[in-house]
Design a protein that fits this description.
Largest sheet: 7 strands, mixed
Bound molecules: nicotinamide-adenine-dinucleotide
Oligomer: single chain
Shape: globular
Strand content: 15-25%
CATH topology of the largest domain: Aldehyde Dehydrogenase, Chain A, domain 1
Number of helices: 16
Structural class: alpha/beta
Length: about 450
Amino acid sequence: MSTLVSRSPATDEVVGEVTVTPVADVPAAVARARAAQPAWAALGVAGRVERLRPLAGRLGARLDELARLVTREMGKPLREAQGELRAIVDGLPHELDEIAAALAPETVDDGKVVSTIHHDPFGVCAAITPWNFPVAMPHWMVFPALVAGNAVVFKPSEETPLSGQAYAELLAGLVPDGVLVTVHGDEAQGKALVAADVDLIAFTGSRAAGKQIMAAAASGLKRVILELGGKDPLIVLDSADVDRAAVFAARNSYRNAGQMCVSTERIYVARPIAERFVARLVAETAKMTVGDGLDEATKVGPMVNARQRDHVLRQLADARARGAQIVAGGGHRELFVEPTVVVGVDHAMDLGHEETFGPVACVTVVDDDDEAVRLANDTRYGLGACVFGADDARTAGVARRLTAGMIGVNQGVYGARGTPWVGARESGYAFHSSRDGHRNFTQTRVLSRPR
Ligand code: NAD
């Protein structure tokens, strides 16, 4: 049996290893899950909720240890890893109540017919996940699927198998054998899982892989939930609080070394304030200490691997060759890329239209709101978008013209508790979280009788 060795991108040390699931064994893993699913479904929502409720306590008790594992495996600063886990722990009680409410049957009576709408499990859900939030992304896929009564075959990213394994082990103690099965490997195991006898594929990852999965799922009309990449714009209107907008731009461009689906990847700033905005952005960029995520001073860790680093450097070189200027950063050593501010970016450059997934802030100066909106929407992606401006109808109007799925006004894209996590256009298909998102893990069924 082959093994998958996980190495720290900061130090290249071996963090650990897992046994790869042979591709030929993937159908048997799915069969195990299918055999275990009916008994899990039979517990009912309340029974499953009670079985899963202890996850918060278990994760909370090991939070620091698991955060260190996440940092060692994929590089993000320890504080960010702790934040990723803390959000799950703190949100879980509410999340369970919200899912349970979403799954409750509803009765509709029109005077002639009485119907009950049920939200039943599909059967077996494949959860295929990325490395950038190596516990949160699995949790977003695996947990609602389980509460809904599905069995889950979970594939962590090949970059973060140990973090995925640790999450799965916390859950495995809470559910009957076979209800959660972990498959380790890369794209090959992912493809085998998609091709196997699964009913729903919940995927978070790149747009390219999402398209392949959707095509592969079509022959069996398997359900898919796809959360894909983005190229999120930030519009800074001339009415904005420039300092606040620049601080946000720096944080949201460099968090997780820019390896976030909702990173700010493009900034459109109004000409009258552009110089001031860029100066403040450069000043904020200088504060971003680069280093090993385990060092307390570190604000920006390494790229997850050499492929990702080379992709970022290639985009920077292409932008420079096409006339953009690097006004801060631009350097690199090993897998560390300096936080970089680029001005004069246009959409002919790869940097202007392809997901970067690196610590790069790309600035384009615009002459009016229409130009800002046109450029912000000039993308096949549609995950998040942000607008900074005065708290007025003009700013709100610009926000409503944006074609992304999640739009933040004078803040990031994160919505109030209970709202969906949703990508528009080529950033996603279906969605999760919120009442309607939880129901995407279920088969709707309507039972009717005469009044
Ligand atoms: P990736 O698509 O390379 O891999 C994601 C997972 O899919 C991995 O487990 C991988 O082994 C597997 N995989 C790859 N190709 C596959 C295929 N053809 N069939 C089945 N499985 C396959 O993505 P990544 O590099 O791990 O993650 C980064 C991407 O994820 C970025 O594009 C980022 O924007 C996106 N992302 C999106 C969200 C969101 O909520 N929309 C959240 C986090 C990350």
